[in-house]
Design a protein that fits this description.
4-stranded antiparallel β-sheet, globular, alpha/beta
Length: about 180
Amino acid sequence: MDRQIKLYNKIFELYITEDVIVEAVTKIADKIRLDMQGLNPLFVGVLNGAYMFVAELMSKLPPDYELTFAAYSSYHGLKSTGIVQELLPIRSDVKDRPVILLEDIVDTGQTMYYVMNRLRQEGVRDVRLATMLIKPGCLQCDLKPDYVGLEVADDFIVGFGLDYNGLGRTARNIYKLINS
């Protein structure tokens, strides 16, 4: 296991190990399984960052759940632009069914706040948010995810789907920036 990784000119140190992540994701799956019993939820993985979280989570849920993907962006480099762009819309019918958004990390919360409100306008029965990570000290809106894996500090992190300008996503552990 690498204690540090270098991406472009930035050094990142080990922050959260894969086993801790997998344990947190398993707990989310257990809660979702109970909450969605007898329902027909649509799971929406938010690309690109959530792909590893989605794969881990969905492998622990019943195979008859429907999964699709969407993509939104509000980041450039190390910072959020504050403007949500829809890059890939949800292509499944959401009307009158529960939807669970699967996000890698919630920091300002602006992107998921926007998406959840938009889905409510489109007539979803219920919209919930499952996030692998949350930075509670960074929230800038009234967003309370229904399922949270781990709370993290306001550090720039990569790994397990999270990236720095496209690099670092495939690391199985999560690393935090130690030089900027």
